[in-house]
């Protein structure tokens, strides 16, 4: 068999075994277009409350205002906290199948595991499990909750354990609301602004460094999953959508402390090997297609995002028909994701910048080449990247 055909077959097998892309699960709607926005059903307006304990009911704490995103297993609403009047985002996920439960629990575990907040990572206010009209606030690793344990069992066993078609189960995530939309909407609706680009590059690298420091590999970094908050008057990046994230734990890649004892809480995510080929095609690193990768895959995805943002290079998503920021390689009449093209041809040279009239500094060019290196060992880790990004953006 021709080597090129063999490689394409390998890529095809990886694509076939890839877990579902949550970008196709929750698609954002244009915030300014209310014609395509559905008002929440009346029963949803009044049903999102809590039960203080097993016997005492509490009034609903949030009023759902409008839908801002929808997909095959979930809906995102803009909502208002009734007591404080604060705007929040409420994500309603239907836990009617093991794969849905797996995505929901992955997001919950990642966000709930963060002991500290970071201004560039979306904050989870609370998570609520709703079933049969009753609602229960969820806490991470709550072994006393039968409902929580049954959700985990559903995910692990790959079969329905909790709820039936006539008795649906939902997880509600209450998070900070980002009125600026996602990175695609924000960048493509405005004129190019080098100062905004520099600020966003710094914020993105700080967010990823924070996640990796907390043993979280995002695994699906893309403009759809990067939201913009404008509460402070200045645009602030918020990395979101942790449905494919992985919380790395255990002794794999753990480092020794000063007294040579293993520190179980210190996991080197750059040595923690992952095997699920997952993510979104145009942002996936070459090694992800092969199903053997580390947190360095997040660095590659970030390089694609930053490169596309600076040069405002886009493609049209085949499913949603939306214009998205992203880099690709042209092969005849096809556009091929950069990671896929590098897997086929590891010696391929990336032309950075792509446009002839580019104001990209030499420092940023060099940094992007390093972030997009075929060999993940040649890429900076998130902490090195944070330092280098501050240096090149300040110099620019």
From TrEMBL:
Q: Which residues form the Protein kinase domain?
A: 62-392
- Show the InterPro entries listed in the entry: CC_SR_Kinase, Kinase-like_dom_sf, Prot_kinase_dom, Protein_kinase_ATP_BS, Ser/Thr_kinase_AS
> What parts of the sequence cross the membrane?
none
Q: What is its EC number?
A: 2.7.11.1
Query: Reaction catalysed?
Result: L-seryl-[protein] + ATP = O-phospho-L-seryl-[protein] + ADP + H(+); L-threonyl-[protein] + ATP = O-phospho-L-threonyl-[protein] + ADP + H(+)
Subcellular location(s) of the protein: Nucleus
Task: List, alphabetically, the SMART domains matched.
Answer: S_TKc
**Keywords, sorted A to Z:** ATP-binding, Kinase, Nucleotide-binding, Nucleus, Serine/threonine-protein kinase, Transferase
**Gene Ontology molecular function:** ATP binding; protein serine/threonine kinase activity
Q: Which residues bind ATP?
A: 92
Which biological process, per GO, is one annotated for this protein?
Answer: negative regulation of G2/MI transition of meiotic cell cycle
State the protein's name. non-specific serine/threonine protein kinase
* Top-level taxonomy: Eukaryota, Metazoa, Chordata, Craniata, Vertebrata
């Amino acid at each position: 068999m021709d080597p090129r055909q063999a490689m394409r077959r390998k890529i095809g097998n990886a694509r076939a075994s890839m877990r579902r892309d949550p970008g196709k699960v929750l698609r954002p709607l244009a915030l300014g277009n209310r014609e395509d926005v559905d008002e929440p059903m009346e029963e949803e307006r009044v049903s999102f409350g809590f039960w203080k304990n097993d016997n005492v009911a509490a009034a609903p704490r949030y009023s759902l205002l409008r839908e801002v995103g929808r997909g095959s297993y979930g809906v995102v609403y803009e909502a208002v906290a009734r007591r404080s009047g604060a705007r929040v985002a409420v994500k309603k996920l239907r836990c009617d199948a093991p794969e849905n439960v797996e995505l929901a629990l992955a997001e919950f575990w990642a966000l709930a595991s963060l002991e500290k907040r970071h201004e560039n990572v979306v904050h989870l206010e609370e998570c609520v499990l709703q079933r049969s009209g009753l609602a229960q606030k969820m806490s991470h690793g709550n072994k006393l909750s039968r409902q929580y344990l049954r959700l985990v069992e559903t995910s692990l066993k790959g079969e329905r354990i909790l709820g039936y078609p006539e008795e649906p189960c939902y997880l509600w995530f209450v998070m900070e609301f980002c009125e600026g939309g996602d990175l695609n909407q924000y960048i493509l609706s405005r004129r190019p602004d080098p100062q905004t680009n520099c600020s966003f590059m710094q914020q993105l690298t700080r967010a990823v460094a924070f996640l990796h420091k907390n043993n979280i590999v995002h695994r699906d970094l893309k403009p759809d999953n990067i939201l913009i908050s404008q509460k402070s008057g200045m645009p602030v990046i918020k990395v979101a959508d942790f449905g494919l994230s992985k919380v790395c734990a255990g002794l794999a890649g753990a480092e020794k402390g000063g007294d040579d004892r293993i520190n179980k809480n210190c996991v080197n995510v750059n040595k923690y090997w992952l095997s699920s080929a997952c993510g979104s095609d145009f942002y996936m690193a070459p090694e992800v297609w092969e199903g053997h990768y580390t947190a360095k895959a997040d660095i590659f995805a970030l390089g694609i995002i930053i490169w596309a943002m600076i040069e405002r290079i886009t493609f049209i998503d085949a499913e949603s028909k939306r214009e998205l920021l992203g880099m690709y390689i042209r092969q005849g009449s096809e556009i091929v994701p950069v990671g896929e093209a590098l897997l086929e041809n590891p010696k391929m040279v990336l032309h950075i910048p792509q446009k002839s009239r580019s104001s990209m500094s030499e420092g940023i060019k060099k940094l992007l080449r390093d972030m997009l290196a075929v060999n993940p060992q040649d890429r900076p880790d998130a902490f090195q990247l944070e330092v280098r990004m501050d240096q090149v953006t300040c110099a620019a």
